[in-house]
Amino acid sequence: MLIGYARVSSQGQNLARQEESLVLAGCDKIFKEKASGGDFNRPQWQALCRFVREGDCVVVHDLSRFGRNAEQIKVEWESLIEKKVDVCVLNMPILNTQQYKDMHGVGKLMITIVFELMSWLAEEERNRIRVAQQEGINKAKKEGKYKGKPKKYTNTSTGQDKLIYEKVIQMIKNNQSINHIAKTTGISRPTVYRIKNELLLPHS
């Protein structure tokens, strides 16, 4: 049985591209979630690990779906291999354990070497992107062009964001607790604090 796993790190990211590639790969079942790669207790990943059986094959779009760094990727990979579950990484066809089955010990050695190399390369690429992003931010700050991430809930928001902002304002004025406001509106506590602080600022 082919079992797909799709993951993005935040609610604002889209799973569609990964899902499409997993469907095209012929997956019989797909587990998907929006969760940080640094979290070992991702609900859908844990559900997948409970679901798979010997002889199944777990399919992912890329190696980083397993985790944030090479060590974590290795832990998750080896946990599947120990269950005699195959793994297929779509954007790295060489990382398909099914093709090494008939090679016995040599095949196991080959997939181990290739996996170690590819997981290291995946981590290096993430680090390179992170450094490039930070360098871009630093440059923009020096040039006075960096504005940071735009605020989602403000008095200039529109649509549903505007309605949520107004509801938060009303609840703040009614002396509702930060925790209650965050839970009721579905936005983070820091965002509620930010709106509250802005509300308390004297108007110019």
Descriptive account of the structure:
By secondary structure, this protein is α/β, with parallel strands linked by helices. It folds into two domains: 2-127, Rossmann fold, CATH 3.40.50.1390; 159-200, Homeodomain-like (Arc Repressor Mutant, subunit A, Orthogonal Bundle), CATH 1.10.10.60. Helices cover 51% and strands 10% of the residues. It contains seven helices and four strands; from the N terminus they run E-H-E-H-E-H-E-H-H-H-H. It has helices at residues 16-24, 43-51, 70-82, 104-142, 159-173, 178-185, 189-200; strands at 2-8, 29-34, 57-60, 86-89. It has a four-stranded parallel sheet with strand order 2-1-3-4, with helices on both faces. Strand 1, helix 1 (16-24) and strand 2 (29-34) form a beta-alpha-beta unit. Helix 3 runs antiparallel to helix 4, helix 5 (159-173) runs antiparallel to helix 6 and helix 5 packs across helix 7 (189-200). The longest helix is centred in the middle third of the chain and has 39 residues, at 104-142.
How far the N terminus sits from the C terminus, by CA atoms, comes to 65 Å
**Please, how many domains?**
2
Please state the overall shape, judged from the principal axes of the Cα atoms.
elongated
Provide the structure class.
alpha/beta
Number of E strands: 4
- CATH H-level superfamily title of the largest domain: Resolvase, N-terminal catalytic domain
Main beta sheet, described? 4 strands, parallel
Mean pLDDT: 82
Indicate the CATH topology of the largest domain: Rossmann fold
Helical content band? 40-55%
Low-confidence stretches: none
Just give the CATH class of the largest domain: Alpha Beta
